[in-house]
Amino acid sequence: MKIIGIIPARYASSRFPAKPLVDIGGKSMIERVFLQAKKSKSLTDVLVATDDERIASHVEAFGGKVVLTSETHQSGTDRCFEAINKFSPDADLVINIQGDEPFIHPEQIDLVASCFDSADTQIATLVKIIKTEEDLFNVNIPKVVLNAQKEALLFSRQTIPSIRGKEQQEWLKSFTFYKHIGIYAYRIPILAQITALKPSSLEMAESLEQLRWIENGYKIKVEFTDFESVAVDAPDDLKKLIKFL
User: Fold this and answer.
1) What is the pTM of this model?
2) Contact present, 9 and 50 (Cβ < 8 Å)
3) Which phi and psi (to 5°) does residue 78 adopt?
4) Among 135, 140, 160, 175, which one is least packed by beta carbons within 10 Å?
5) What backbone phi and psi angles, to 5 degrees, belong to 143?
6) What residues contact residue 243 under an 8 Å CB cut-off, 6+ apart?
7) What is the pLDDT of residues 217-229, one digit of tens each?
8) Cα separation of 164 and 47, whole Å?
9) How many CB atoms lie within 10 A of CB 44?
10) How far apart are the C-alpha atoms of 80 and 91, rounded to whole Å?
């Protein structure tokens, strides 16, 4: 199976402009993500998809592969679809690797790829058990509920499900809650279909693009991970990386 890891990387960002090029211990963020992805045993190749010449030149300078994509894409999923069509249209799978997680575990990439051992899998992602109230009630951390086949039923920034009849401080003891780990894998025909969909009402309400896929009947297979790398959404998050290191 030909599996391409694609790292979407935008230069423009309201909270953190030029984030992919920020220096982290002597290497840029995008280089660290690229090097971690290259350690995966599942990937046939790794590619950066960007809309900016500065990022493209930087990736080429450290020996990475890069494809320039449109500036108008609304999501990393859209950018991945353009990139795979330019780079490797004969691929079987694309794994969308977040460009702001410089210490992503290669095992997570392999884990999400393993979901496609089943021919029925259309889209796959990862979840992790929530262990703290801080995460449980943090609206910046998407939560997910699953069915018995390990498929996502719903994602929400709110805490789902709501535990009736118990105080919130008792919820973690009463139910197993999951947070979403933002790595996606798609079969190429499915990727073509979901990028053609119009934004859905659920997606716009929560600002979570995976809800568009669920609302249109696509199934998202889930695997469980114990790993969680530190994402950099704003300059202050760099302090977390120092602690992580």
Assistant:
1) 0.92
2) yes
3) -60, -40
4) 140
5) -105, 160
6) none
7) 999 999 999 987 7
8) 46
9) 14
10) 12
